[in-house]
Amino acid sequence: MLKETLALLKKHGVEINNPFEKVVLSNSTREENNVLYIKNIPEGLLYIQNKAAGKVMDENTFKHTSTMIDLSRNAVMNLEYFKDTMIKHALLGFDEVWLYMEDVFKISTEPKFGYMRGSYSKEELKSMVLFAKKLGITLIPCIQTLGHFSQFLRWFSSAPYKDTFDVLKVRSDKTYELITDIIKTMREVFETNKIHVGMDETFGFGFGRYYKENGYTPQPELFMEHLIKVNKICLDNGFVDVYIWSDMFFRMYSKTESYYDPTITFDDSYVKQIPKNVGIVYWDYYNEDEAKISAMIEAHQKLKRKLIFASGTWIWTKLTYDKGKTDRTAFAHINAAKKYNIDEICFTQWQDDGAYCDYDSIYVGLYDVMNKIVNNTISKEVFNNITGSNYDTAIIYSEINTFKGAPINYLWDDILLGIYVNEIFGYEPENFDETINNYKEYINRLEKNRLHAVIIDFAKLILSKLEFRRKLLYNYQNKKPLLKELLPLLENIRVNLDYVIMRFRENWLRRYKFYGLEVIESRLYVFYARIEDAKYLFEKYDNKQIDKLEFLHEPLDKKEPYLSPKFTDTFYGTKVF
Fold this sequence. Notes:
Blueprint: H1 2-11, E1 22-25, E2 30-32, E3 35-38, H2 41-52, E4 64-70, H3 79-91, E5 96-100, H4 122-134, E6 138-142, H5 150-153, E7 162-164, E8 167-168, H6 173-189, E9 194-196, H7 209-214, H8 219-236, E10 241-245, H9 247-251, H10 268-271, E11 278-283, H11 290-301, E12 307-312, H12 323-339, E13 344-349, H13 362-373, H14 380-387, H15 391-394, H16 407-412, H17 419-425, H18 433-448, H19 454-477, H20 483-511, H21 517-542, H22 567-570
Parallel strand pairs: 1-3, 4-5, 4-13, 5-6, 9-10, 10-11, 11-12, 12-13
Antiparallel strand pairs: 2-3, 7-8
């Protein structure tokens, strides 16, 4: 089959010459006497490329090395971009890809399921499965069967399924009819017998409409009953290996709903109720301490079921891939997974808050984690050939994540209220200087290296907003004119905003379905109005029609320990949602 895969790659402009006399499927990937033994096709592709670059790759000891693509947070990849993504994943050695789909696929019984979300038809999904298969990648359906249903449950017609705003009502015939339809659809599309049915972060389930209709039932009892029912539906439809996220097992027994608490114990009689074919996915994108990670793995092992480790390559709430964050977390996760002989590891690529990150920046991360898995034996030349970018220059993009403050919060922060910059810099103009200089140097490095992805436009917009804020504070505190001296800076924000919107739109429409673009554009277009608001306000202040800008007198004595990166939490002073 490798021959057919090489032919497909050539058809898509990727030519790889196989120097081996023979290629044989085996339980490990290695070469002997000019015969290449491969565990799977992607590993073979990576090995061949690395061999051509003059290096021999150490064995990947994981049975499956996968990624998870989040298709539910706004951005639904179009088929052409999906194919390009699969090619790069295969060339980097990943043999499984989980497709995280909350409601972005069509089902027969509910027209509002995935309504206006760019949902895939069965035919589209089947073509994606077939294309990935030709590359040696198995696509795994990664769906939800309890929580994360807010998109569907917002409709009035979905009320019969609703417990809380984003959780399905258990012990409801309607709910299990819906889940059956979902799983039947997955069975009709996917060729694997493996399915991930979610069930994570179901905070408050059993305490919404279920509670009003049925009274109190302990959450562990409801959760286990639901899991058993969903598992039976999966088995009835031919899915044998059924996986769920593990956090609710921990949260249900924690008074603070904490997941990362390795001291939690499980009653043996409860553990025995978990169906034998159900596997547990330990997701951890945050912990860097290997001792804590080890303790969590040991706690998971007490559940006595197959365990998969889900780490992350950080693109969520980022404008570009965060190499530092991933290196600190994923590398520790790889070490721990190997230490405990966990044979499957997945690197998630969540898209929380709208999928605004430049997805193509992820390949630095996928190269890095695969290189770590095989003991740093992959040549950088392999990355260069796969992506068409030089590794040493591509990592420059990630430097924006090392500056003081979060880039995405600077982007979403209101130019007048400054809710985020107030927490970071206060009202002292000079506090902005170091970060402003960092952004200037960063932009210069990007331009010097001819790195012109959308991140440079975002960086210029952020810089113009920071410079404006500094000047506003300085002029206001020193009784200097506002409108006349700040007008050029406001115009600079407007110009950079034009470029961001233009480049972002082009990228989006090239990569994704049309749906979802309106979410990001509406956030960006609001700044045009705020520029006009600023001009109006400054003119009134300069003309003595108002004697102060009240939002620059709010007390800043108490700093928040954490600020959400979400637009609705950063931009608005008043939440009315």
